[in-house]
């Protein structure tokens, strides 16, 4: 896959912005040319840098492969990996990409097949793979290689898009809920789960694609749906599934911070999800996309300060002797020292990974 470029700067501050805007990028050639960046127009097309090497001018669905070394599924296998085999065997191919192989065994790579669009309108960005999803996937893979933290967990991904992250986690998890909104995105995610069913192997895992729109209440009414047609039933929740999701310990979200209104809706849902049932940890990856802001008269990362305004620092609260009755605490996870397991992208340095918990008077 083609190498992408870093953060892009768009000309003015749109309501939803920061994606590669086809109207602004000469090399991407716009199917919806516009004299402005047009990002607040519903038909305006945007493109994830992950897809820069895909066939140009294609507006349909495309299958890309994402390759990484197979994570261990037992402690015995893990011991062999953390014994140094994985990290000592890092080679570079002719493009300078990392090639990871396990010592003393045949190369045991997993190749995920992900169906996606190469460009989309902003309401359909979930049909593309975004860089934050791949950085978080690397982070999860590293945890799978070095710990049993995710073995047998129940996990739920918010704004799952193509479903890549949850499909990868299904390698070791007990149950994964891939959630998003809209017929098209959910249908595509469902296709991807089926395209990759062989990676689950003998491991018993349940993977559900379910509707979870942050503008709606959590928990949902069993069987209810905002979708049209057969998808109403295909992606709605049963009572047992809601109970199981309440017991999830891991939440995942990648590239879901790009508009303040959306961030408000997301945190509203997180408040409901994380204040009920089993204690949950959210791993959230965001890409800082820089735009010139008229209100700040400066180049700022879109939506970033609004996102940060939701988080308190647990350490600082403890030092100050403050015990808040209800809040989110967040800590940024360093991933620079983690190898790049997934070959087909340029990691860059504009993605942050946050580990977020919800504190309430009862925990
Ligand atoms: C930029 S995409 C990221 C997709 C995927 N996580 C990735 O990184 O490749 C943002 C995702 O958030 C989803 N989303 C946006 N608004 C939403 C809402 N109100 N409720 C649920 N999901 C939403 C979109 O459908 C899309 O899948």
From TrEMBL:
It comes from the Eukaryota. One of its GO terms (molecular function) is protein methyltransferase activity. GO terms for cellular component: nucleus. InterPro entries: Methyltransf_16, METTL22, SAM-dependent_MTases_sf. Pfam families: Methyltransf_16 (PF10294). This is Methyltransferase-like protein 22. It comes from Stephania japonica.
């Amino acid at each position: 896959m083609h190498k992408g470029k870093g953060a892009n700067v768009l000309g003015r501050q749109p309501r939803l912005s920061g994606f590669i805007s086809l109207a602004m990028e000469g090399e991407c050639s716009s199917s919806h040319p516009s004299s402005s960046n047009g990002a607040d127009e519903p038909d305006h097309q945007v493109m994830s840098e992950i897809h820069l090497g895909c066939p140009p001018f294609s507006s349909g669905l495309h299958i890309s492969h994402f390759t990484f070394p197979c994570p261990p599924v037992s402690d015995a296998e893990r011991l062999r990996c953390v014994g140094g085999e994985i990290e000592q065997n890092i080679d570079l191919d002719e493009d300078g990409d990392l090639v990871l192989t396990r010592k003393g065994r045949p190369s045991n790579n997993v190749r995920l097949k992900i169906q996606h669009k190469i460009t989309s309108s902003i309401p359909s960005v979930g049909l593309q793979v975004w860089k934050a999803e791949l950085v978080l996937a690397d982070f999860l893979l590293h945890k799978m290689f070095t710990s049993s933290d995710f073995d047998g967990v129940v996990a739920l991904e918010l704004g799952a898009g193509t479903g890549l992250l949850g499909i990868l986690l299904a390698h070791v998890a007990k149950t994964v809920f891939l959630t998003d909104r809209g017929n098209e995105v959910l249908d595509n995610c469902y296709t991807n789960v089926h395209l990759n069913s062989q990676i689950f192997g003998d491991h018993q895992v349940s993977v559900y694609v379910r509707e979870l729109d942050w503008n709606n209440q959590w928990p949902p009414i069993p069987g209810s749906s905002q979708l049209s047609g057969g998808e109403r039933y295909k992606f709605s929740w049963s009572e047992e599934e809601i109970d199981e999701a309440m017991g999830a310990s891991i939440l995942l979200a990648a590239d879901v911070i790009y508009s303040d209104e959306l961030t408000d809706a997301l945190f509203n849902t997180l408040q409901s999800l994380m204040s009920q049932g089993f204690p949950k940890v959210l791993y959230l990856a965001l890409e800082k996309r820089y735009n010139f802001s008229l209100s700040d008269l400066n180049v700022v990362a879109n939506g970033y300060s609004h996102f940060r305004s939701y988080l308190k620092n647990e350490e600082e609260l403890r030092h100050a002797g403050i015990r808040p009755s209800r809040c989110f605490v967040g800590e940024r996870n360093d991933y620079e020292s983690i190898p790049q397991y997934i070959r087909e992208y340029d990691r860059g340095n504009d993605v942050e990974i946050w580990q977020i918990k919800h504190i309430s008077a009862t925990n």
